[in-house]
Specification:
Helix 15 (about 605-620) runs antiparallel to helix 16 (about 620-635) and helix 15 packs parallel to helix 17 (about 650-665). This protein has 17 helices and 34 strands. The protein is of the alpha+beta class and about 775 residues long. It is globular, with a radius of gyration of 27 Å.
């Protein structure tokens, strides 16, 4: 299998960013920047994962009386949707200050007088995690490299020129005008920075030091230095907040003092660390090599005009992996609505942790795309929020276990703070899915025992108490909603009801995972009977008058048939209950639902279009999945391929959902079997992918030609069996020089594996590749 071309992992543009949305992101999970790539004036917009406002960080939940909850349920069970919603909004919704807003730290600016540039190019090198700007001024070529070092927790900026003494600039740190923030700039020797404090007490600092080869520096005004006649300039930048550092100023100073190496040592260290993670997965798609000579914005316009560019979709896939690495690695917080990068003091939706699809979508590609380490901050967040979620379950619903809100922030208060939208019980169950995925992909029984199973059973405890019986004796969730959607006759802007399909899907999946985990761990045998009884008494899924999978327990008409959420299709993806093999009638009904949603204008946000693409991949419709990926890129991407929520709001989950869609097109592993190229689009007739992960602890490399799989390499982490769904008349398997015996049953191939063993599968027409 050939190594994919490195140039397929580069984005480049032929002009500086005229707006924040077109800048290039860099980050190490903890800190990051948006690089504009200016010539006379360069701007780095700066971010720290822990810089959030704290006005309502001490908020608490108002306990709800049991008789009030009984009244709410009585209204909803009687079909009095508007009245029941009004009561639920009054008593179960948040009415406080809301979740807090994620904040920009400030800007690092470089003023380079007289840099009227020619031959300009700015590049984001996904493989190395380096942004580069190059241009000529007269006869002198200037180059700028920028990266966020995960090893040192600093941002490094390196300026060079191919003529001695050609670099003169002023460099400074500042922050947008903010009446609720005091800023104290300073400069001393070769260092400068500012210390800041919000009115409610949150403190943060930014500091930089300048290292010159040749030339001189002088102190400028405020937090700035002036540089003159340098051959080479390195700027080391640190940021800190008092979220977990008592002295942000001192912490920045220690980070800067710890950097004593030459620039190229720092660069080599950074590239090695980034490359070791990013390079696990390679994707090679045959395309027109001439398109590589075109900048990304030109290629996007070409796609919009009806041209084809399959390689740029592969680039979008790798950009998503890059963004996940840059926003969720060796850090405290999970990636928020914008990952790590946010332009505004009051970002849309506060750039919060949105838990009714968005934060979950952020992590859809983590396991399958071989970036399991990126889930670590997400897992840490679940541990931190658990005590507050336990209090919320008791205060709001009188239940044991854990309840988590639809929105949250770094203060993890688990309080409802989005009136009407926040009366929903499904967030904790959806978040728990990622714990099970972590076990499925790695088969780490210690993790299952110590972390996944305890959290999952806490969520089960909640539902054991929360479920009530309706007039037919079924166990139902009341109040319930299909996140953010509404039906005719229901309340506005979101309709509360009884047992929305999404709730039943989540509870069935959760109980199934707990049953399987308890058997694997050989614990809680007595609880299994209770869990099975709940499963037996949940209402069945419903197929409506249009042949669609109903979104609600009743066959309501949709108030907005093209709604952006497709929560009732959870059983197709990210769940796995509805497949052609397991529940074919509901699988088909789910497809009808998706077709109806799209026919009415659905998929009209970036993240919603990404979910649509991955659903088509699960429906094994490669051409349709690819078509929606193209729409995702052409309709909802900036020049730097960042995802947009209309009209012009960056939301990272569209990028990451699109990455997950590509992975699902090439490899699926739910339902106990691997599916190789299950939704390969005709636009990718030949290619190769290396390093995708599959459930069961497998790493998979695939190559194909003329739309058909020619070779698969399966590397196992553990001893056991590997089952592959592959409709191949004649195939062979080998390990080194030895043939591996295969068992064929229908279209399933089964073989035994040993830890570290690589099994090569190939068609009979292909030679065995050593």
């Amino acid at each position: 299998m050939q190594r994919p071309r490195v140039e397929s992992e580069v984005l480049w543009l032929g002009a500086p960013a005229a707006r924040w949305l077109d800048a290039f992101p860099i980050g190490n999970g903890r800190i990051g920047a948006m690089v504009f790539g200016g010539t006379e004036q360069e701007r780095l917009a700066l971010y720290h994962e822990n810089l959030w406002r704290g006005v309502t960080r001490e908020r608490t939940t108002r306990p709800v009386a049991p008789e009030t909850l009984a009244q709410i349920r009585e209204k909803l069970l009687a079909g009095e949707w508007v009245e029941g919603t009004a009561l639920a909004t009054e008593y179960l919704s948040g009415h406080g200050g809301g979740v807090q807003a994620y904040q920009p730290v400030g800007d690092l600016s470089l003023h380079l007088p007289g840099h009227f540039a020619e031959h300009y190019r700015r590049t984001l090198k996904l493989t190395s995690g380096i942004a580069e700007v190059s241009y000529t001024v007269g006869t002198v070529t200037h180059t700028r490299e920028l990266f966020a070092s995960a090893e040192r927790n600093v941002i490094v900026i390196h300026l060079t020129a191919d003529a001695p003494g050609a670099i003169s600039a002023s460099v400074g740190l500042s922050r947008i005008e903010d009446p609720d923030c005091t800023l104290k700039p300073w400069a001393e020797g070769d260092c400068f920075g500012f210390d800041a404090r919000f009115t409610e007490g949150v403190q943060f600092s930014a500091a930089a030091k300048v290292i010159l080869t040749g030339g001189v520096y002088t102190t400028g005004e405020g937090a700035s230095l002036r540089l003159a006649g340098a051959d080479e300039v390195t700027i080391i930048l640190a940021m800190a907040t008092d979220f977990n550092e008592d002295d942000p100023h001192g912490h920045c100073a220690r980070l800067l003092d710890a950097v004593q190496e030459e620039y190229f040592q720092l660069r080599e260290e950074h590239v090695a660390e980034h490359h070791a993670l990013f390079d696990r997965v390679r994707l090679e798609i045959a395309g027109d090599p001439a398109l590589e000579a075109l900048p990304a914005d030109v290629r996007l316009q070409r796609l919009r005009d009806g041209g084809d560019d399959p390689a740029i979709i592969a680039r979008y896939f790798q950009l998503g992996r890059y963004l996940l690495l840059a926003s969720s690695r060796k850090c405290d917080q999970p990636a928020n609505l914008q990952g790590l990068w946010n332009e505004d003091l009051q970002a849309p939706w506060a750039s919060d942790f949105h838990q009714d699809v968005n934060i979950e979508m952020n992590y859809w590609p983590a396991e399958s795309c071989n970036l399991g380490e990126c889930l670590t901050p997400f897992l840490a967040y679940l541990r931190r929020v658990l005590p507050a979620g336990q209090r919320a379950a008791k205060d709001l619903y009188g239940c044991r276990g854990v309840w988590l809100p639809i929105t949250d922030d770094v203060w993890t208060r688990a309080t409802p703070e989005a009136p009407k939208w926040d009366v929903w019980s499904g967030a904790a169950a959806w978040l728990a899915q990622h714990l099970w995925w972590r076990y499925e992909y790695g088969r780490d029984q210690e993790f299952l025992r110590d972390e996944a199973y305890p959290f999952m059973t806490q969520v089960v405890d909640f539902f054991e108490d929360f479920l009530v019986r309706d007039a037919q004796g079924r166990l139902v969730t009341v109040p319930s909603q299909s996140p953010e959607n509404r039906f005719t006759g229901g309340a506005d802007p979101v309709s509360l009801c009884v047992a929305a399909t999404m709730d039943i899907l989540l509870i069935r999946e959760l109980l199934d995972h707990c049953l399987r985990a308890s058997e694997i761990l050989n614990v809680d045998a007595k609880r299994r009977a209770k869990w099975q009884a709940i499963l037996n008494d949940l209402p069945p899924y419903q197929i409506g008058k249009h042949g669609q999978l109903q979104e609600w327990l009743e066959d309501f008409d949709e108030e907005e048939p093209g709604h952006r959420h497709v929560s009732h299709l959870y059983g197709v993806f990210p769940g796995e209950e509805m497949t052609p093999e397991r529940l074919p009638e509901y699988y088909q009904a789910a497809r009808v639902s998706l077709e109806r949603r799209l026919a009415s204008g659905g998929g009209h946000t970036g993240w919603s279009r990404a979910w649509t693409a991955v659903l088509w991949a699960r429906f094994r419709e490669g051409g349709l999945a690819y078509g929606h990926l193209v729409h995702l890129v052409t309709d909802f991407a900036t020049d730097s391929l960042l995802d947009l929520h209309p009209p012009q709001i960056f939301q990272i989950e569209g990028n990451l959902g699109g990455t997950a869609a590509v992975a699902e097109m090439l490899l699926q592993s739910h339902g106990g079997a691997l599916r190789l190229l299950p939704a390969l689009p005709p636009q990718w007739p030949s290619g190769a992918v290396m390093g995708l992960r599959a459930r069961g602890g497998f790493t998979v490399d695939l190559s194909w030609r003329d739309g058909a799989l020619t070779e698969a390499r399966i590397t196992a982490d553990h001893a056991g069996l590997c089952r592959i769904q592959w409709e191949c008349d004649a195939c062979h398997a080998s390990c080194g020089e030895e043939l591996v015996p295969l068992t064929h049953e229908a279209n399933i191939i089964t073989f035994s594996t040993l830890p570290g063993q690589c099994i090569v599968l190939h068609t009979a027409e292909e030679p065995v590749k050593r």
